[in-house]
Amino acid sequence: MTNPYSPTQWLQLSMQQQGLLQPFGSLPSLLQQLSYVQIDSINVVERAHHHVLHSRLPHYATSMLDEAMGDKTVFEYWSHAAAYLPMEDYRFSLYRKQQLQQGDKHWFEPEHKVMREVKARITAEGPLKASQFKHNADAKAGTWWDWKPAKKALEQLFMQGELMVAKRDKFQKVYDLTERVLPNHIDTTVPSDSEFARHLIKRYLVAHGFGNLQQIQYLRKGLKPLLTQALAQLCEQGDIARFTEPHTRQVYFYLPNLTLPSTIPNKVWLLNPFDNLVIQRQKLKQWFGFDYQIEVYVPEPKRQYGYYSLPILWRDRFVGRVDVKTDRKNQCLLLQQLHFEPGAFSAEESKNEVLSKESLSRDAFVPAFIEAINHYSQFNDCQRWQLVTCNDKAIGKMLHRACK
């Protein structure tokens, strides 16, 4: 079957499925749509998981995530990375937990004696953080991989499903026994191979609209045969459809009942580097022409765009990125490097025939960008923002005037 949509239309559909085009009424309903929100510890600005939710929920406050954990509508576990997930998907976390219980390895070899001691103490005393366990003063101190034995044990028990995260205390996990955290009504039946594969497929396609096998199994090992079989069955049953992308010859799957959004607002979204829409960099580059890489892990001399650059999505185009940092002492959001793509404001470069030259102008972009920056500044508890550098002189002048 031929591709039913253009790249621009696929981006519009992805934006719609990702909850960017319509406000969500609640955090649980949004998380259900997204399937997960990745947790990240970097805090040069507000943390990634809060930013992703802020981008989609009007009046989002970081306390809402704590409340959702307290209400037990959300839980922590591993998706392709550490994540918040909807509690109704809990039983599908049991698939990985069972594998670990049966000897599969996560990060390190289990130390069963320490695990028994750690679990016994939590059983007797209640919820505890890793910092509440004694550290052997003679143990080697070093990198993240040199965790003390108790912390390794806590994480292993968590990954195997014997412990859950009851809450976070200043970003530290507070662990408790699963039976004391998990609501009584939650189904704890371990899904079959087929159920788990279908769950991953449907969750991904609901959240993104379309994707190939590699994208659906993103950072999950050993699932290719199961997913291949489930995808074929779902296509045969008419639950999903497929097409072959002519340049790569890759088969893509999609939901057949999608409806294109009627309008795309003149709005700027400042997306987090770990945002669900941009986390799969190769798909972003191939389909939407945006070659994005987070440079947190790149040595400083080799960085092109800055430590923590946010992708800038304007209407239905990725037009640039901005490296941000909060000066918390002065309550100022620093736009350390604002960089626009070549042809970002050229109608000739646009794949959207509806947008005119005027609607793609800098004069149309700047007010929407200022609104997004103001909103993002407030979210970061900043009273003002400051542009440091910009590769577009005309926009730089307009923004310098706006931030005075």
TrEMBL record:
Highest taxon, organism lineage: Bacteria
Organism lineage: Bacteria, Pseudomonadati, Pseudomonadota, Gammaproteobacteria, Alteromonadales
InterPro entries with a match to the protein in the record: AlkZ-like
Record-linked PANTHER family: CYTOPLASMIC PROTEIN (PTHR30528:SF0)
Pfam families linked to this entry: AlkZ-like
Organism: Shewanella inventionis
Protein name: Winged helix-turn-helix domain-containing protein
